[in-house]
Amino acid sequence: MNSKKVSNIHPDHPRYESLQLRARMVEAYKAGILAESGLIAHGRGEAFDYLIGEKTTTTAIKAIETAAAALILADHPVISVNGNTAALVSREIVLLTGKLDAKLEINLFYRTPERVKIIEKVLKDAGAEEVLGTEAENPVFIKGLEGPRSQSSREGVYKADVVLVPLEDGDRAEALVSQEKLVITVDLNPLSRTSKTASITIVDNLVRVIPKLIDEVDRLKKLEDTDLQNIVKNFDNQQNIKDSLKLVAQAYTGKK
Ligand code: PTJ
After folding, report:
1. N or C, where is the chain less crowded by C-beta within 10 Å?
2. What is the dihedral of CA 30, 37, 131, 154, to 10 degrees?
3. Which atom of ligand 1 is nearest to 168's Cα?
């Protein structure tokens, strides 16, 4: 994790990790990486993270395994990066891109040339050799979308068969699915439109997901394609979301 420790929070504080992350997001906002709404989105994520006990659940593990299998099987895997992703897991995302021989593309909801440039630098500083979706490209537009979110890179999301889009907005997730792409999202809110629309929804915090996804890619790379295909075929996203919700209720009631 690209952690920058905040000195005035004692490690014994029960919310230490959460407060560290929050402080990192404020720094990212000041550095121009994060949109103002990125801070609000992070707060929303914190609330849902609290409900799942701030840990990776069994349902998330299942979704991570399936996501790893789908990404390994992909012909053109693409990882889409927004401000929150760049702020939280830029190094891990670049590492994952390399392991999958995937493309890395910047896609911003609140797109400005300045933010694109800043995020491109963050990714390059984290080791990325190629970053798509920059201002230097002529974008291709995704059908059914308006505004900056309709932009995609010809060699990236436009061509992709499998796209990893953490913290995506509902409209874009729907448009990507309708283009017959397999859409993997990471969203702490199991009830968001993106969560319900995506092909594989990982209900967990991005900071915990990406390192685990890297480990799963390393583990599953040794399997045959047919085994990977079975993992993807046997995954039921709607059922997994329901199971994630059940875990939240169980944590509250203590009942199984
Ligand atoms: O960088 P930009 O311009 O592309 O803007 C990115 C944001 C996130 C601001 C934009 O896409 C947005 O407004 O997103 P939403 O609609 O607020 O959705 C964010 C979702 O991500 C919510 O459901 C949050 O619960 C969830 N979320 C927030 N932080 C995390 C998270 N999910 C997983 N891990 C997190 N760390």
Report:
1. C
2. -160
3. 11
The first and second tokens of residue 190, run together, are 């199991």
pTM above 0.90, yes or no: yes
Give the domains, in start order, of the chain with CATH numbers.
58-253 (3.40.50.12640)
Per-position pLDDT tens, the chain of length 256: 444 565 577 788 878 888 899 999 999 999 999 999 999 999 999 999 999 999 999 999 999 999 999 999 999 999 999 999 999 999 999 999 999 999 999 999 999 999 999 999 999 999 999 999 999 999 999 988 888 788 999 999 999 999 999 999 899 999 999 999 999 999 999 999 999 999 999 999 999 999 999 999 999 999 999 999 999 999 999 999 999 999 988 877 766 6
Q: Which residues line ligand 1 (CB under 6 A)?
A: 35, 37-38, 41-42, 44-45, 48, 82-84, 88, 108-110, 167, 169, 186-189, 192, 205-206
CA atoms within 13 A on the CB side of 45: 28
Which of 1, 84, 112 maximizes ligand 1 atoms within 8 Å of its Cβ, making it the mutation to test the pocket? 84
> What is the rounded CA–CA span in Å between residue 18 and residue 23?
9
Are 120 and 134 spatial neighbours (Cβ–Cβ below 8 Å)?
yes
